[in-house]
Amino acid sequence: MKFFCNPLNVNYRYQFNADPRRHGELQICREAADPSMILFKGRYYIFASMTLGVWVSDDLAYWENHRLPDTLPLYDYAPDVRVIGDWVYFCASSRDYNCDRWRTQDILNGPYEKLEGNFPFWDPNLFLDDDGRVYFYWGCSNVTPIYGVELDPETMNPKTEPKALVEGHPFKIGYERFGENNSLLPATEEEIDAQVKAFHEAQGIPKSMIPKEVMPLIRGMFSNRPYIEGAWMDKHEGMYYLQYAAPGTQYNTYSDGVYVSDSPLGAFTLAKNNPYSYKPGGFLPGAGHGSTMEDKEGALWHTATMRISKNHDFERRVGLWRAGFDADGELFCNQRYGDWPMNVEELQKDPWCDPKWMLLSVWKPVTASSFVPGHEPECASEENVQTWWRASSNSRDEWLKLDLGEVQNVHAVQVNFADDKIDIPCPGEIRHGSQARYIDEASHVTQWKLEGSTDGESWFVIADKSEAESDLSHDLVVSEEGFAARYLRLSDMAVPYAQNPCVSGLRVFGLGHGKKPHGPRYAVERVEDLDMMVDISDQPDALGWNILFGESPDKLYHSYMVFAAGPRRVGALIRDRDYYVRVDVFNENGITEGVCIRLQ
């Protein structure tokens, strides 16, 4: 069997960001985002922003990193990659110069042939229709829309004028609203006017001196309007599915929506199932700005950006989920247990299959050799990537121990290392491209040893990576046959830049010995147009709940995992659309479905 667990278990490179808004202060974090995934000559490839390379897989479960040539714009965001015949076409984003394209017939070895660009763009996406015509989509702004144009397939130059295709509508599309849980309403024109006036006064710049073309961007800064970005096009049974991301990458509600048309340049209408890629809860949230690909078995997969956003807004990772089209042509993506271990082969057969193993570690007691106040050991078991245990030294004698409460049958462990504020000089020269930064190319390592015990006294080795030469900050250990353990101990740790080790999640999966939880009790109520309140009653046999909703009882395609009972606001609804809601409850032993309710 082939298993993986989001975020993808790959090397995430460090970025040294010299943000001018922070007067050049370095912000250091790992980053990978905006993934383009393709199948080419029997292998899978993911190109993601700020990785300097490409991840390659034969089975969608195990990925290797390969460096790409420096002739490609590796410091530009949102690399777009598409297969056209025997060629793979590559481009990336810039607003400051014409964006070139490259093409190759051998991704790993090249050569890459350059095609001169003739206009700038951001968040590009190339699409080959089945009649041989080529189209191009781009856009990333809270002011301007996503555009589309037809290209000459030989020169890749535009044949038509750009056409506006997708704009933001945050007053009627809930998931497009800014903020955690889509909590920020767009500003009114009067509020924007006041903010812009205050901005001019603070900067000491008269409004008359601001170029006319810059004014919309300044107003956009204060609008709380969503970024509409990350276009990706797919075609299914004669219909065109233009996917886009909103509202902003730093929020847990970063998601992908989809518009549908019978023509590649529209007009497009908002699909019934929206947002189709949406993961606001769980350990690592976010599922926006991605791509959708058919695998060798004919199954559809969606890869997208997940967010941490603690050391920098662009501290991000990459996730992968099963997708598909239902019988009515609705594009969906299954993210119900979207950061638990997944079996590729089972999902290829059934995109809605339940997880094979349950989460055993949430809220379980954790102790450690030491800790820094504010980063206590229990942070490693609270299922929140934005909190972490931090040891008080970088000694390899530091350790972290998790108590499952009883001997359990363990099948998988995900070891998630975090970065606390890193304060070191930039190891290379800052490059001034789309943003001022340096991407560290050094071969770092992340090393550790994981042991198990049934009694806390006698220990056995589960995995020993204390001499590893890899840098995997979200590593996954799988044991299909399982092993008995009550305690798990992480020790002998060494991480990049000689940091004190930080662990955001020592996550354990397996099967308990008890009963599934009783059926959940909850009430749901629609609040105005775009929100609903889901009030979940606490129950002693529960560990967490999954709020499912959709357009009908058999299309509960959206999900929001929570680990606390009580009222929960969900702000992803669309005005004038009906919804059905079901809350499922889970514990170490399995999942119990709730009763589906029509939202009033």
Provide structural commentary.
By secondary structure, the chain is mainly beta. It has 4 domains: 31-186 and 229-349, Glycosyl hydrolase domain, family 43 (Tachylectin-2, Chain A), CATH 2.115.10; 188-223, no CATH class; 358-511, Galactose-binding domain-like (Jelly Rolls, Sandwich), CATH 2.60.120; 522-598, Immunoglobulin-like, CATH 2.60.40.10. It is 5% helix and 41% strand. The chain contains 3 helices and 43 strands. Strands 26, 27, 28, 29, 32, 33, 34 and 35 form an 8-stranded antiparallel beta sheet that branches. A 5-stranded antiparallel beta sheet has the order 14-17-18-19-20, with no helix packed on it. Strands 38, 39, 41, 42 and 43 form a 5-stranded antiparallel beta sheet that branches. A hairpin with a 3-residue loop joins strand 36 (522-527) and strand 37 (531-536). The longest helix has 15 residues, at 189-203. It is globular. The protein starts with a strand and ends with a strand. The model has no long low-confidence stretch (mean pLDDT 94).
Quick recap:
By secondary structure, the chain is mostly beta strands. It folds into four domains: 31-186 and 229-349, Tachylectin-2, Chain A, CATH 2.115.10; 188-223, no CATH class; 358-511, Jelly Rolls, CATH 2.60.120.260; 522-598, Immunoglobulins (Immunoglobulin-like, Sandwich).
Describe the secondary-structure layout:
Blueprint: E1 3-4, E2 14-18, E3 26-30, E4 33-40, E5 43-49, E6 53-57, E7 64-67, E8 80-84, E9 87-91, E10 101-104, E11 113-115, E12 125-128, E13 134-138, E14 140-141, E15 146-151, E16 163-166, H1 189-203, H2 215-221, E17 228-236, E18 239-246, E19 255-261, E20 269-270, E21 288-294, E22 300-307, E23 316-325, E24 331-333, E25 342-343, H3 344-349, E26 358-359, E27 366-368, E28 389-390, E29 399-417, E30 431-432, E31 436-439, E32 447-453, E33 460-465, E34 474-494, E35 502-511, E36 522-527, E37 531-536, E38 544-550, E39 558-562, E40 566-570, E41 580-587, E42 590-592, E43 597-598
Antiparallel strand pairs: 1-25, 2-3, 2-31, 4-5, 5-6, 6-7, 8-9, 9-10, 10-11, 12-13, 13-15, 14-17, 15-16, 17-18, 18-19, 19-20, 21-22, 22-23, 23-24, 26-35, 27-29, 28-35, 29-34, 29-35, 30-31, 32-33, 32-34, 36-37, 37-40, 38-39, 38-41, 41-42, 41-43
